[in-house]
Amino acid sequence: MPTINKSYNINNEEKSFKKFTNKTTNEHSTGSSNNDILNEVIKHQVALKSFARIIENYEDLIELDTKQYNLDSLFAMDIGGSLCKIIFYDCNIENFDNNEIKELFNSLKNNIFSTEDYGFSGIRDRYKSIKTKNGCIHFILFETQRVKNAVELIFQNDIIKNIKQISCTGGGSYKFEEYFREHYDIEIKKYDEFKSLLTGLNALLKYSPNESYHYKIDNTIISDKPIPDVYDADKKSIFPYLLVNVGSGVSVLHVKDENTFERVSGSGIGGATFFGLVRALTNINSFDEALQASREGDSSNVNMLVGDIYGGEYQSFNLPAEMVASFFGKFAKNGTMDKASDADICNALLVMITNNVGQVAYLNAMRYNLTKIYFSGNFLRSNVIAMKALAKAIHFWSHGEIQAHFLKHEGYFGALGTFFLNNLSK
């Protein structure tokens, strides 16, 4: 089994991220156009790797290391519309009381840890693994359209015969329920999506140091590296907070305490909106290319700025000249569309989407008098450009009084919470 504390090797890391970026786009980019965005992603993940990856002082979770397991309880799934997230817990072999199950467990581990790359779209996020006292939690990702292949790739025939039930959340727990039952004689044990999401998030915010991080902003200059948040359990509670989950769309949750939360807002303008409009307005057909183009483009060739209207800043309301007055406003004039490149359009779209999400988040934080805003969701997975844009948006709308906080395990909280709910008695 590979250790999660291997020394850093830039070639291995680049190879790993190229695998991921190739797998999660509909069409692969070619040539060297992705080098800049890939290098930024690598630097971002290297910085996150330096954060602690353990669970400590976790009296509420100690049962993970003391209970007797069967193969069923080692897994949990969150099957979303685009991605299927899988948790695998590598427990101590003494947590099994049956020698036959111990042998199957070793066979299962050999199968899972023989690679980080499963078929066309599967990947094990090695750098996200978390150590418990006697075990390790691992995170695996598949495209939802290949979830059927995921089962066959991870489970060998002799293993799958010993799995009778898998805990699961997300829409896919309903969509694939009959398939699992008919083809593998496996029952799906369903858990509420938001309950699972918050169970996983709250556990890591409380017990895993540096789960959340932020970017430092001085005026309009943003730091290159993520800065870990430090949580002192003796001084303050993690509650209340606002959780903004950015996926295809956006959901906003007001989390009051461990057991009380409500969905207070949302938006239909999210990650799928960004990529859908990119494909509609440009010749770009992959998400990675869209991010690279966003990095290189100039949205001022697309957006109408305050300076375009007033010839400079609008001093009466302290609006800077470079502030957007109207997204895509310049396209309303004849002869302007030909002057904008695909990269300019991608940059304008990313600025528009993230500013909208940031404003929705800020207004809800003000509505409920909250000072902590966490952003999660797979749209932000390795999307450094979007995270920095959100950080700037929150900084701007709050006049620097509120920071945007991001999460290392951004898309895995639903699967992790499902695992906890299935294995912990409280």
Automatic annotation (TrEMBL):
<keyword id="KW-0547">Nucleotide-binding</keyword>
<keyword id="KW-0808">Transferase</keyword>
<comment type="similarity">
    <text>Belongs to the type II pantothenate kinase family.</text>
</comment>
<keyword id="KW-0963">Cytoplasm</keyword>
<dbReference type="GO" id="GO:0004594">
    <property type="term" value="F:pantothenate kinase activity"/>
</dbReference>
<dbReference type="InterPro" id="IPR004567">
    <property type="entry name" value="Type_II_PanK"/>
</dbReference>
<keyword id="KW-0418">Kinase</keyword>
<protein>
    <recommendedName>
        <fullName>pantothenate kinase</fullName>
        <ecNumber>2.7.1.33</ecNumber>
    </recommendedName>
</protein>
<dbReference type="GO" id="GO:0005829">
    <property type="term" value="C:cytosol"/>
</dbReference>
<dbReference type="GO" id="GO:0005524">
    <property type="term" value="F:ATP binding"/>
</dbReference>
<dbReference type="InterPro" id="IPR043129">
    <property type="entry name" value="ATPase_NBD"/>
</dbReference>
<dbReference type="GO" id="GO:0015937">
    <property type="term" value="P:coenzyme A biosynthetic process"/>
</dbReference>
<dbReference type="GO" id="GO:0005634">
    <property type="term" value="C:nucleus"/>
</dbReference>
<keyword id="KW-0173">Coenzyme A biosynthesis</keyword>
<dbReference type="Pfam" id="PF03630">
    <property type="entry name" value="Fumble"/>
</dbReference>
<comment type="pathway">
    <text>Cofactor biosynthesis; coenzyme A biosynthesis; CoA from (R)-pantothenate: step 1/5.</text>
</comment>
<keyword id="KW-0067">ATP-binding</keyword>
